[in-house]
Design a protein that fits this description.
CATH architecture of the largest domain: 3-Layer(aba) Sandwich
Oligomer: single chain
CATH topology of the largest domain: Rossmann fold
Strand order of the largest sheet: 7-6-5-8-9-11-10
CATH class of the largest domain: Alpha Beta
C-alpha cells in the first residue's frame, strides 16, 4: 500500500508541473513575450502552491477523503484548463483574469496534495524517511514532466490533449485511493460515481481535442483553416480564402499568397542582382521556400544551403500541393541542401569547422517577438553572419516595419553596424503587412545595381529608388544595440507593436 501511495506522489508531481508548463506555453502562444509570461505563470503558480500548503494544516480528520476530492478537482480543473483557455481567448475580453484564475486554483490544489499525502503516510514511516522519500519522488516526477513536455507532449499531443491526459492521471490516482481506502472513506460510492463521470468527461475531451483546437482557432482566423500542426517548435496554421493562402506561426501572419511576391522580391533581388559572381548562397530561415524560389531564378547560383529550425515547415512546403506550386518546388531543387537546425548553433559550428564563405546570404527569420528569436538579431549572431559572408558579398535581412516599429527597425541596423558591417536600409509596401523594412549589409565592397530582371512583378529601378527613401516619420533614430544580455530589440518590438494592435 505504501508503494502505491509513493508512486502516486510521482504521478501527481508530474501532473502538477505539466499543468504549470501548459499554462506558460499557452500564455506565450496567445499573448506573446514568452519570458514575461513564463515568469509570471511560474511565480503565481509557486505562490499559489504556498497558499495550498499553508491551508493543508487546517483539516483535522477525513484526510484521505479530502485528498481524493483534491485529486478529482485537480483532474477536472487542470485537465480542462487548456481547452477552456483556448476557447475563451477570442470570446472573453478579460482573458488574463481567466488564465491567472486557472493558475491560482491549480496551484492551490497542487500545493495541498503533498502535505495531505504526507499526513496520511506519517504513521507508516519514520519522519526522516517520510520527508526524504516523498520529496525525492516529488523531484523525480518534476524531472519526468520537464523531459516529457518538450520532447513528447507538445510535438505529439499538443497542449489541449496533454492537459486532458494528465487530468485523467489525477482522476486515476483518486480512483486508486478510493479502492485502497474503501473502508475508510465516507461517501465512497458518491465519490466513485463522481470520479467515473469525470474520467468519462476527460476521456471524451482527450478523444475530441483536435476538434476542440480547430473550433477554438476558427474564430481567430478570418478564412477557413485547411491545415494545422503543432510541431516541436511552433503552431503552424494554413488558411485558405478563395485564392488566398495564408500561413500563421503561433498566431502571427507570415505571408499571404496574394502579395508575398512583393515581400520576397524585396528581400532577395536588391542584393543578389548586384553580385554577378554569386555562386554560393545561404538562406537562414525561410522554410517556406519562397525566398529560395527567388534565389533560384539566377542561373549563376550553383549551390544553396537553407537552414531552418523546424522540419515540420520544410516538410509541409515540400509535400503540400498548393504550397509546392507557390514556391515552384524550390525545396526539391538539386542545387538546394536543407538543414533543419537552430541557425545560431549551425553558424557557430559551421565556422568552427572551417566552412566555406557565401557570396550572398538571405536572412528571413520571424520578427523578434520573443527572446529566442531576438538572439538571431543580436551582435553575437550578426558577428557569425559577418564571418559567413565573403568579402565581396552581401546579406539581406527582413527587419520588421520602420513605420509601425520604428525603433525596432533601426535597432536592427544599428546592431549590424555595431559588428562592423556597412548597411543600406530600404523598405517596401506589402499590402498584408503595410510598409516593411529590410537591410543590405556588407563589408564595404558592395554597390547596389539598378538593373533587374524584367519578369519581376514588383522590383524595378523606379520601385527600388522609392524603397531607399525614408520620410521623416520613418527616419533614423538612435537605439540601444541588441545584445544577448539585454535583448533591447525585443523590448522595442513588443512596445511598438502593442500600440498598433
Amino acid at each position: 500500500m505504501e508503494f502505491v501511495l509513493l508512486f502516486s506522489v510521482a504521478v501527481i508531481a508530474t501532473c502538477g508541473l505539466v499543468y504549470e508548463l501548459i499554462a506558460g506555453a499557452l500564455a506565450s502562444y496567445l499573448l506573446g513575450d514568452s519570458i514575461t509570461q513564463f515568469s509570471l505563470i511560474i511565480g503565481i503558480y509557486l505562490f499559489s502552491m504556498g497558499i495550498g500548503s499553508w491551508l493543508s494544516k487546517f483539516p483535522k480528520k477525513n484526510l484521505i477523503n479530502l485528498f481524493i476530492q483534491v485529486e478529482l478537482l485537480i483532474g477536472l480543473i487542470g485537465g480542462c484548463s487548456a481547452a477552456i483557455l483556448f476557447m475563451s481567448f477570442n470570446y472573453v475580453e478579460s482573458f488574463k483574469i481567466i488564465l491567472y484564475s486557472f493558475v491560482v486554483l491549480t496551484g492551490i490544489l497542487v500545493g495541498l496534495e503533498i502535505p495531505l499525502l504526507m499526513r496520511i503516510l506519517k504513521d507508516r514511516y519514520k519522519f526522516e524517511d517520510l520527508i526524504s522519500r516523498v520529496f525525492a519522488i516529488d523531484y523525480i516526477g518534476a524531472l519526468i514532466a520537464s523531459i516529457l513536455f518538450p520532447l513528447v507532449l507538445v510535438p505529439y499531443l499538443g497542449l489541449i490533449r496533454s492537459a486532458f491526459l494528465f487530468g485523467i492521471f489525477n482522476i486515476v490516482v483518486g480512483i486508486w485511493a478510493l479502492f485502497i481506502f474503501k473502508e475508510e472513506v465516507p461517501w465512497n460510492k458518491s465519490l466513485r460515481g463522481t470520479a467515473l463521470c469525470l474520467l468519462l468527461l476527460l476521456t471524451t475531451g482527450f478523444i475530441y481535442s483536435n476538434k476542440i483546437q480547430r473550433w477554438s482557432e476558427t474564430a481567430t482566423y478570418p478564412d477557413p483553416i485547411v491545415y494545422s500542426e503543432t510541431s516541436k517548435y511552433q503552431r503552424i496554421i494554413l488558411t485558405s480564402g478563395g485564392k488566398d493562402l495564408r500561413l500563421f506561426l503561433n498566431g502571427n501572419l507570415q505571408f499571404s499568397s496574394k502579395d508575398e511576391y512583393r515581400y520576397h522580391e524585396a528581400l532577395v533581388h536588391p542584393g543578389l542582382a548586384s553580385i554577378p559572381q554569386a555562386k554560393r548562397v545561404l538562406i537562414l530561415g525561410g522554410g517556406d521556400g519562397l525566398a529560395l524560389r527567388e534565389v533560384l531564378t539566377y542561373p549563376k547560383v550553383k549551390e544553396v544551403l537553407l537552414v531552418d529550425l523546424d522540419p515540420a515547415m520544410t516538410r509541409l512546403f515540400t509535400k503540400h500541393a498548393e504550397l509546392k506550386k507557390l514556391n515552384k518546388n524550390s525545396l526539391t531543387s538539386e542545387k538546394v541542401k536543407v538543414i533543419n537546425q537552430d541557425a545560431f548553433v549551425w553558424a557557430r559550428d559551421y565556422l568552427k569547422n572551417g566552412g566555406e564563405k557565401f557570396d550572398y546570404i538571405a536572412i528571413d527569420f520571424p520578427d523578434p517577438s520573443n527572446y529566442s528569436l531576438g538572439k538571431l538579431y543580436s551582435t553575437s549572431f550578426f558577428s557569425l553572419a559577418k564571418n559567413l559572408l565573403d568579402k565581396n558579398g552581401v546579406l539581406s535581412i527582413q527587419s520588421t516595419s520602420p513605420y509601425f516599429a520604428r525603433k525596432a527597425f533601426w535597432c536592427v541596423g544599428n546592431t549590424l553596424e555595431a559588428v562592423g558591417l556597412k548597411t543600406i536600409p530600404y523598405n517596401a509596401y506589402v499590402p498584408s503587412f503595410g510598409i516593411w523594412g529590410y537591410y543590405l549589409a556588407h563589408h564595404g565592397n558592395f554597390k547596389m545595381t539598378k538593373n533587374f530582371n524584367s519578369k519581376l512583378r514588383y522590383i524595378n529601378t523606379k520601385t527600388v529608388d522609392a524603397m531607399l527613401t525614408f520620410p521623416s516619420d520613418m527616419a533614423h533614430v538612435k537605439t540601444d544595440i541588441n545584445q544577448l544580455n539585454n535583448q533591447a530589440l525585443v523590448r522595442y518590438f513588443e512596445n511598438e507593436w502593442s500600440q498598433v494592435n
